[in-house]
Amino acid sequence: MATALKIAPPEDKISNFVSRTHRILINGKWVEAASGKTFATYNPATGEVLARVAEGDREDIDRAVKAARAAFETGRWSQLTPSERGRAIWKLADLLEENLEEFAELESLDNGKPLKVARVADVPLAVDLFRYFAGWATKIEGNTIPISVPYAAGAKFLAYTLREPVGVVGQIIPWNFPLLMAAWKLGPALATGNTVVLKPAEQTPLTALRLGELFQEAGFPDGVVNIVPGYGETAGAALAAHPGVDKIAFTGSTEVGKLILQAAAGNLKKVSLELGGKSPNVVFADVDLEDAIAGAASAIFFNHGQCCCAGSRLYVENSIFDKVVEGVAEHANKINVGSGQDEATDMGPLVSAEQLNRVCGYLESGISEGAKAVVGGGRHGDKGYFVKPTVLVNTTEKMKVVQEEIFGPVVTAIPFSDPAELVTQANDTVYGLAAGIWTRDIQKAHRLASQLRAGTVWINCYNIFDAALPFGGYKQSGWGREMGHEVLEQYTEVKAVCTAL
Ligand code: ADP
Known about the structure:
- By secondary structure, the protein is α/β, with parallel strands linked by helices.
- The mean pLDDT is 97.
């Protein structure tokens, strides 16, 4: 007799998950906060409560760190064969891919981003990232090193290095790409054999919590991945300061990055930081105008400008300045702003009321100092946290809108004529995360690429990410790199072993 297979439609699955009481994942168990407290996560398109989530705090962080420590010390993860670890991560990637639609929906509901974007960017990139790091698990190698030892004439040695996991890793992530940031952090930490306590952003905890369930389904041993939702000043600060944590990895604002560094000083835990940016995007007059205009618009408006690498300072060569500004403004006008759940939406709301106020505050400050909004310039509608895509002109280098990270759909367009001055202006920022260059002249492009103080330079493209491509900042944009083989160094200690023969 054939058994009818009933697969719950995604909508049921999603509403079942959202309406559940969300708990903390410690040592393979979903538990309430020690305090019994919960906090709300909101739908930014409406401002209404989406779900209630256990509010992790110092005590929960302590329990999670102890579970991660026990899992590390027993070797139930680090002592698996590299191949077994790699396969577990690959299995996780498969499960994530199978549940792509559900994750895209959850991300769109919790963060506000268009569902159609989460479907083709956030979730597939996270799947790909886990697969990339699954492959690395079997390739974490040391070296054999020929040594000379001048004071031991005639002696022979065999010397080699081992790469070992750092131990218990705390990871604190932001709300702009909640699932993808979890993947960026967890992939390399797990491939190298560490155990983890992850704290998602309080604005967007849902996909990380659902991912926790997939880790269980994929058969990860208890305590290897612990997930503690909660606020930054409490749970996040406790994790950064915890003496039982060997390394802290943080993505977020430069301001909080500095607090993380101070908190980490107590036990000198290793620190990696992926922080803010105010990235220059430079358009030369020889460019294919249509491409450059579309590129400049997407560099700032993608993800509602809530990208640490957003191309928020647009430098355009004088002779084409008006055309480019007009073109970017036209793109902005065509952007359909609305709920991320609506298939017609190109740009959803900002993530929170706080973010809405912050971005509107910057707009008011810029305009009151003499900047002009060619398009946009304020809030969109009066419900939810929407901001109009905005192009500002008539700015000066000293204005806050030119110097500070706005983290919203706001670009300042600035004309230039002298390439040498341009380099000085483009680098005149405390940040150094990313930059864009648009030109048909390859000499010009590569010369400028070498002069810009930024961790990523995109030439005739923008926002191109890949698990194999390192990403991170110069100057106050951070320490260390995410992704690529570079990140593996941050999750391993090097041990030199020397044997007298
Ligand atoms: P934003 O200002 O864009 O919200 P933050 O840098 O404040 O970015 O937040 C990024 C992450 O850092 C979030 O998970 C947040 O909870 C956490 N966080 C905020 N403040 C602290 C803190 N003092 N210590 C540790 N983590 C923090």
